[in-house]
Amino acid sequence: NEILGSGCFSFNGTSNTYVLPNDLDEMLSGAFTFSCWAYASSASSSGNITIISKPYTTNWSSPYHSFTLQQNGSNFEFASNYGSDFFVLSSAVGGTGWHNLVVTKTSGNLFSFYVDDDTPNTTTKEVTWGTQAWTIGNTPYNSRYWDSYIDDMVFLKRVISDDELTSLYNSGSG
């Protein structure tokens, strides 16, 4: 299990990011849960703005990214894009303020994306994980800087239960 940082991360939307070590990669081979609280400073963004990303390559070319959590317009999205093999799981933001975002992956490659403990969007997909570093607050190759706050980021080496998911959502507001 990994807790990413301590305290709330603040982002200016133009330049600041945090790069994480690749030791998180060992969690990707099996089941995992990623959770965070993200503050939507507006009900819609003017494009994709990235909360956390695991780029596959160092530039904007196929196969793009293995794991991206972002706000796109009035939706939060979890996406993986390996060239022609990509998926996006999307959920409406529901306004400004703090939102609890959770991505789970079973050992059988079932991805589930939850926003505010709502019914998840799911897909079963094999993902090819890149070797680039995890980046919080931006997708490194195309300036999609987050312009708000991210708090309580956690990676777990297991899928959390429905009760844990509800407890996590009820435990705070960022």
Features:
single chain, mainly beta, 7-stranded antiparallel beta sheet, globular
Number of strands: 13
Helix coverage percent: under 10%
How much of the residues is beta strand, in percent?
A: 35-45%
Largest sheet: 7 strands, antiparallel
Span from first to last CA? 20 Å
Q: Mean pLDDT across all residues, rounded?
A: 81
Q: What best-fitting shape do the alpha-carbon axes yield? A: globular
Q: Structural class of the secondary structure composition?
A: mainly beta
In DSSP terms, counting alpha (H) and pi (I) runs of 4 or more, how many helices?
1
Q: Segments where pLDDT lies below 50 for 5+ residues?
A: none
Element-level helix/strand string: EEEEEEEEEEEEEH
Radius of gyration: 15 Å
Notes on the protein architecture:
The chain has 174 residues and is mostly beta strands. Helix content is 5%, strand content 45%. The chain contains one helix and 13 strands. The chain has one helix at 162-170, and strands at residues 2-3, 9-10, 18-20, 32-40, 48-55, 65-72, 75-82, 85-92, 97-105, 110-115, 121-124, 134-136, 149-156. The model has no long low-confidence stretch (mean pLDDT 81).
Q: In brief, what are we looking at here?
A:
This protein is mainly beta and 174 residues long. It has one helix at 162-170, and strands spanning 2-3, 9-10, 18-20, 32-40, 48-55, 65-72, 75-82, 85-92, 97-105, 110-115, 121-124, 134-136, 149-156.
Furnish the topology, listing elements before pairings.
Layout (H helix, E strand, L loop, with lengths): L1 E2 L5 E2 L7 E3 L11 E9 L7 E8 L9 E8 L2 E8 L2 E8 L4 E9 L4 E6 L5 E4 L9 E3 L12 E8 L5 H9 L4
Antiparallel strand pairs: 1-13, 2-13, 3-12, 4-9, 4-13, 5-6, 5-12, 6-7, 7-8, 9-10, 10-11
